[in-house]
Amino acid sequence: MRSWWTRLSVLSTAGLGSTFWWHKKTEPVQTDTDYRKTSPTPEQPSSQYELKLVQVLFRHGARTPLKSIPDVLEAQWVPDLLEVPDHTKINYVVTDLQGGPRPPAPVEDSYRARTLTGGTYPGQLTTLGMQQLYDLGMRLRKRYMQDVAFLTPSFNHKEVYIRSTNIVRTIDSAKCLVAGLFQQQQTDIVSILTEKAEREILYPNYYGCKLLKLRSGYRWAESSTLPDIAEDLQSIQSALGIQSHHRVDFILIRDDMVARETHGLPCPAVLDSWRARVEQRAVDMMYHIYDPGNRENLQLCVGPFLHILLNNMETKIQASALDKDRKLFLYSVHDTTLMPCLMALGVFDKRWPPYAADITLELHQHRQTKQHYVKVSYVGQDQKIPGCSDVYCPLAEFKQALAVYVLPEESYHTRCDNTQDVPNQSPRTTSRL
């Protein structure tokens, strides 16, 4: 079993026992590093809409690369790049979904089986990445505490639910976002919930879902052989001096290139003229892999996650006693989560989601008609969902727009195990986290 999780983790963006973490609080440091433009502020109390629920899906922050480009000057990924800023420290615990011991983390274990030049592990959140998520928390704080008094200023577990993939960089990203959002003020221990790897639905799980692997796993390897991509790949390998026996692709090259550039580390000079093409070809590969025109493929990639998001809205509308105080759901995920979600929403701009990118779904209620509406934003920009009559999308229209992709989790697991009459394409490589 370990071998297939190892294969999963060495390709580009997804201990037992509950672990408590306590760090001494210090005065938070506010920075102005967020390059994103923000959308208009939420409605004021006199507005026709009342905010009821917020759900944020966010990519982790900047990290060390998952694998270095072979045969080129390697960057020095030294431990100093991973120092934890005091203002991002909170009191938190990582558990399973039921509040029990944290599940094993085979993907993380595979990262720690090898070391990058400089002495750090692949896929680790850096100090810069921690600050990016802190800044995202600050942006959410401005929107939902200062512009409109929606959240209470101190963390309250009844108001806020946090789930992360069981990988250290996403767990740490969730922690940093919460530190920025609540300025280290908390009345409760912050619980970050995780799921065991084989049942994870916060990213396309090619190893947990047999049907997804059989139907489209082979497309990971196939994407590098598409004529235009293969021709460009051969050219850039030659330009970089990568020997032919090395298996590289544009996603791997982009991953290392962006990690270096983000942290101000040296990058092969030849990539200066190739940067735009590397970005384009990496996205072309992902578009081929997720195949948004294939309804069932996107269903198996993010269908159960989309179902959870819609179910959270329905639960809020029903105002059950158990969840009546819930106001915010936070999901710490990956670029490989955001891309198929954006495709299902019909707003993927064919650009790679940056570190700390977020998709935010707001549930509103019209003050007069009492009808519910959904507003979606991506990286702070409001999105008009195809099939919706307005940015404020009537809930019925929003549900209809996603209906072909939504899949209840029980149905998902049943379908994942039903592989009869599906040809085995014998994929060489599959999902990347």
Description:
- The structure is a single chain.
- By secondary structure, the protein is α/β, with parallel strands linked by helices.
- Helices cover 36% and strands 13% of the residues.
- It is built from 13 helices and ten strands.
- The strands form two sheets. Strands 2, 4, 6, 7, 8, 9 and 10 form a seven-stranded mixed sheet that branches.
- Strand 8 and strand 9 form a beta hairpin.
- Helix 8 (250-262) crosses helix 9 (275-290) and helix 10 packs across helix 11.
- It is globular.
- The two termini are 17 Å apart.
Question: What string, H for helix and E for strand, traces the elements in order?
Answer: HEEEHHEHEHHHHHHEHEEEEHH
Q: Which radius of gyration do the C-alpha atoms yield?
A: 21 Å
Question: What percentage of amino acids are in beta strands?
Answer: 5-15%
Number of helices: 13
What is the terminal-to-terminal distance? 17 Å
Indicate the multimeric state: single chain
Mean pLDDT: 89
Relevant terms:
disordered N terminus; 433 residues; seven-stranded mixed β-sheet; alpha/beta
What is the gist of this entry?
The protein is 36% helix and 13% strand. It has 13 helices and ten strands.
Q: How do the strands and helices of this protein lay out in sequence?
A:
Elements: H1 2-9, E1 19-21, E2 49-59, E3 92-96, H2 106-111, H3 127-146, E4 160-164, H4 168-182, E5 190-194, H5 210-217, H6 219-223, H7 227-240, H8 250-262, H9 275-290, H10 295-318, E6 328-333, H11 335-345, E7 358-366, E8 372-378, E9 381-383, E10 393-394, H12 395-402, H13 409-417
Helix pairs in contact: 3-4, 8-9, 10-11
